[in-house]
Design brief:
Layout: E1 2-6, H1 10-21, E2 25-29, H2 32-41, E3 43-46, E4 52-54, E5 58-59, E6 70-73, H3 80-86, E7 96-99, H4 106-114, E8 120-132, E9 135-149, H5 156-167, E10 171-173, H6 178-199, H7 203-208, H8 210-229, H9 238-248, H10 256-263, H11 270-283, H12 288-304
Parallel strand pairs: 1-2, 1-6, 2-5, 3-9, 6-7, 9-10
Antiparallel strand pairs: 3-4, 8-9
Helix pairs in contact: 3-4, 6-8, 6-9, 6-10, 6-12, 8-9, 8-11, 11-12
Length: about 300
């Protein structure tokens, strides 16, 4: 398959690297020092299973690549407008576009630029980051990808993309209910990211302390209630399952949200906890935990974005 990875950060860089190593025709859409390093030396992946270097082509201009079979969008939510503006040259009549972002609305945000006939849905589980320009560090969690067409169905192109991931050593599937899968991940990552960011601690201390663990559970319960109010069918034990996943993560692990907040760079606060607050209000579901998290982190977020506005 010809695959473009739009955003070669921790997630996109990891998947681009393993797909290229597996022999797929992969192009990375990147920028800045990271792009320059990839062009000069390739992409170094440091993983628990061993380090390797891949050499996929990389560019800042999608027009240099042209139409592909699939586009994996792996940017942060605040960069979606830039993707909408730039993705056009990558799209052919049968291109499948799959966002692997952490919110639940990325496919809707991309829809105006992509069109429903190309728009898929997707999610991933992995802890990875850009350790240095041209270098991706896979911290932990066995990589997982779920994807489907817009209506949740399988199709030959979706199955081909899943097969490419599997060939690259990634646990990938077309789940029975992609919307439920998206919301279960949102329940997990939004709650974990917000609570760990407020606590300013990695996963281990947060789960070991009864008070912070209870705060995390209540945050997850709020999102489960929002999902139910919006017609999403989550398993009755969705929160317990999410906490089991949380307990399996390495204790030194951190979320991208808290790393960005700590580094004073723009984060996905608005698309995570902010979105939970907004969707809760729309659905008539109280969100005291996410409202607190959003309010507590918002001054740092606005400072990182160079604004002191509301």
């Amino acid at each position: 398959m010809r695959i473009a990875i739009y955003g070669a950060g921790g997630v996109g860089g990891y998947f681009g690297g393993v797909l290229a190593r597996a022999g797929h025709d992969v192009t990375l859409i990147a920028r800045g020092a990271h792009l320059n390093a990839i062009r000069s030396h390739g992409l170094l992946l440091r993983t628990p299973g061993g380090d390797f270097r891949a050499h996929p082509p990389a560019t800042a201009d999608p027009a240099e690549t042209g139409p592909v079979d699939a586009v994996i969008v792996a940017v942060k939510s605040l960069h979606i407008p830039a993707v909408r503006a730039g993705i056009g040259p990558l799209l052919g009549p049968a291109t499948l576009v799959v966002p692997l972002l952490n919110g639940v609305n990325a496919h809707e945000a991309l829809l105006p630029a992509v069109g429903r006939e190309r728009m898929g849905k997707g999610l991933t589980r992995i802890i990875s980051e850009v350790a240095a320009p041209g270098e991706i560090r896979h911290v932990g969690v066995d990589p997982y990808v779920a994807l489907a067409e817009w209506d949740g169905s399988a199709s030959p192109r979706a199955e081909a993309l899943v097969a490419a991931f599997v060939q690259a050593g990634v646990d990938a599937e077309i789940p029975p209910d992609i919307d439920a899968a998206l919301w279960h991940k949102f329940l997990f990552v939004c709650s974990l990211g917000g609570v760990c960011a407020v606590c300013r601690m990695p996963l281990g201390p947060v789960r070991a302390n009864p008070a912070s663990r209870d705060l995390l559970r209540r945050a997850m319960e709020e999102i489960a209630a929002i999902a139910a109010a919006r017609g999403i069918t989550l398993p009755p034990d969705a929160v317990d399952r999410a906490l089991e996943i949380f307990d399996s993560f390495p204790p030194e692990g951190t979320s991208s949200l808290q790393r960005d907040i700590a580094a004073w760079i723009p984060s996905e606060l608005d698309a995570w906890n902010g979105a939970a607050v907004r969707m809760g209000a729309e659905s008539g579901v109280p969100t005291p935990v996410h409202s607190f998290i959003h309010a507590a982190l918002l001054p740092s977020e606005m400072a990182a974005r160079g604004s002191s506005g509301d």
